[in-house]
Amino acid sequence: MADATSAVSPLRRRMTQDMTLRSLPPARQRSCLHAAAKFSRYFDCSPDHLGLEVVPPG
Fold first, then answer.
1. In whole angstroms, how far apart are CA 1 and each of 6, 7, 13?
2. Considering only CA atoms, which of 7, 6, 12, 8 is closest in space to residue 47?
3. pLDDT score recorded for residue 1
4. What is the total count of domains within the chain?
5. pTM for the predicted model, two decimal places
6. Percent of the chain beyond pLDDT 90?
7. Sign (positive/negative) of CA torsion 41, 32, 7, 2?
8. Any domain includes 17
9. Within-domain flag for 1
10. How far apart are CA 29 and CA 37, in angstroms?
11. 51's torsion region: left (phi>0), alpha (psi -120 to 50) or beta?
12. Which among 2, 40, 1, 3 has a CA at the least distance from the CA of 15?
C-alpha cells in the first residue's frame, strides 16, 4: 500500500504544517484547505500560481 502522504501536494503539506504551527484546530484547517481548493477551481488554476493580483479590491 502506498504512503498516504505521497498523494499530498507540497503546497497542501506546507499549508497544513503552517496551520499546525499556528495551533489551528483540525476543523479550521479543513475549512481553510477547502476554501483554497474552491478558490483554485474558480480560477481554473493551481493555487500556487494564484496571488493577490486575482483578488478584487474590496
1. 11, 12, 20
2. 12
3. 46
4. 1
5. 0.72
6. 47
7. negative
8. yes
9. no
10. 12
11. beta
12. 40
The total number of residues shown for the chain amounts to 58
pLDDT (tens digit, 0 to 9) for every residue of the chain, 58 residues total?
455 556 788 989 999 999 999 999 999 999 999 998 998 899 898 888 888 887 778 7
Contact 1, 22 (CB under 8 A): no
Q: Is residue 55 part of a domain?
A: no
Q: State how far the Cα of 35 lies from the Cα of 15, in Å rounded to an integer.
A: 12
Closest CA to 20 of 3, 5, 33, 34: 33
Is residue 58 a part of any domain in this protein?
no
The whole domain housing 18 covers 9-46
